[in-house]
Design a protein that fits this description.
Elements: H1 2-17, H2 21-28, H3 30-45, H4 52-82, H5 89-127
Helix pairs in contact: 3-4, 4-5
Length: 128
């Protein structure tokens, strides 16, 4: 439900002011990764985390995570900073606060997924 509120706030602001539509559309790129993130979770819940298909999905998840979450959020933060003068203060503050919350959350999630799928698997392979 919290994510839903963030999406409504982001797109509601864009809709209300008829501005920042491109910025809002770039924010939707983050959702491309959600497909692989959720598929990975479903496969883990089904007990298929040792299959080749899971490894492919996991690799696709990490790849799209970097491209569609980390790089996109970094670009969005950069855009906010570079365009500070042309953005109303309230919108700027909303954007900076959102980016300062969402970016660290995404980095922590990336580390957790990387650790679970790849670092732990490599550690287990070395022990055997």
């Amino acid at each position: 439900m919290k994510c839903f509120k963030k999406v409504i706030t982001c797109f509601g602001t864009s809709f209300l002011f008829h501005r920042y539509v491109g910025y809002a559309m770039v924010a939707l790129l983050v959702e491309v990764n959600s497909v692989f993130l959720h598929l990975r979770t479903i496969l883990r819940m089904a007990g298929l985390s040792h299959t080749t298909f899971y490894r492919v999905v996991s690799l696709a998840n990490l790849s799209t995570y970097v491209v569609f979450r980390i790089i996109t959020l970094a670009w969005m933060t950069r855009w906010l900073v570079l365009n500070k003068e042309s953005i109303p203060l309230a919108i700027y503050v909303l954007g900076i606060v959102a980016m300062s919350i969402i970016s660290p959350m995404n980095l922590v999630l990336f580390y957790r997924v990387l650790r679970t799928d790849w670092l732990r698997a490599q550690h287990l392979a070395k022990e055997q």
